[in-house]
Amino acid sequence: MLVLNEEQTRTALAWPALIEAIATMFAGSCVMPVRHHHDMEVPGESDATLLLMPAWLPGQYMGVKMVSVFPDNAERGLPAIFGTYLLSSGRTGEMLAAIDGGELTARRTAATSALAARYLARADAEELLVCGTGRLSLNLIQAHAEGRELKRIGVWGRDRGKAQQVADEARVFGLNVEAITDLEAAAHSADIISCGTLSSTPVIKGEWLKPGAHLDLVGGFKPDMRETDDISIRRAQVFVDTRAGAMKEAGDIVQPLKSGVLTEDAIHAELSELVRGTRPGRTNDDDITLFKSVGAALEDLAGAILAYEHARGNGA
């Protein structure tokens, strides 16, 4: 059995190959039960979350990811997310690999956002704003920059020092990134806004979105979490990674559905329909598009297979 640590997982999941692997999985025949989602009490702190995400390709591969989310880990200098992915043979059940789940999650989440932007952002989008300074932020910057000519990239966080740290890390990869202090001004001019926060109140206001903007929401994964407001929902054409997940777990979708601001019929498409071409994405340069992702187990399976086959091909 292969064991891939964080660095080995990162090396095995190059952005172009990962984005295409996820696209292929969304277009394919992956079986994906709704994930298990459990709140866990942490005395004296915010509740933690345990996620179990199974998926399989019949007769080929099967896998499950176990992820924990401890929001207060930032105070300890630790990542909020830890996890492990277990990949097995879909024909025999033999265990094939244990893969670092934190790195897999961060990279597949960002790659899925970049895949969605392929269909939803303007082709000439050249300015990106990333909100959040956690593990996802650098990955979102790199993924959105893959195959797209971005002239301006900004990163914003409530902690200015952390935003500057992300910008500095991005420059190591040859990306010209600036730490942003005026969020509203940056949002007004951005072509793509990507939010990867754990906020329970809106970070981006709908009145800030310019015609043609694409709003990418990937941080919130509970019904009480929100990264944007009802004005965004009213102004935008809404898309999701999966209807089953987003309408059950995503506060940016669940809350507007409950209040009547959004109806199920008003969700234009889920990502598999965009990839297969059965429903259109952006149809007008002036449309505002919104993509809400809560994460799908097939994305993890796609990444795990890619990592396993890459490592095996390199003699790991």
Automatic annotation (TrEMBL):
Uppermost EC category: lyase
GO MF terms held by the record: ornithine cyclodeaminase activity; oxidoreductase activity
GO CC annotations on file: cytoplasm
Enzyme Commission designation: 4.3.1.12
Pfam families according to UniProt: OCD_Mu_crystall
GO BP terms, alphabetized: carboxylic acid metabolic process
Keywords, sorted A to Z: Lyase, NAD
InterPro entries: NAD(P)-bd_dom_sf, ODC_Mu_crystall, ODC_N
Classification via NCBIfam families: PRK06141.1
Similarity field: Belongs to the ornithine cyclodeaminase/mu-crystallin family.
Protein's name according to its UniProt entry: Ornithine cyclodeaminase
Species this protein is from: Rhizobium leucaenae
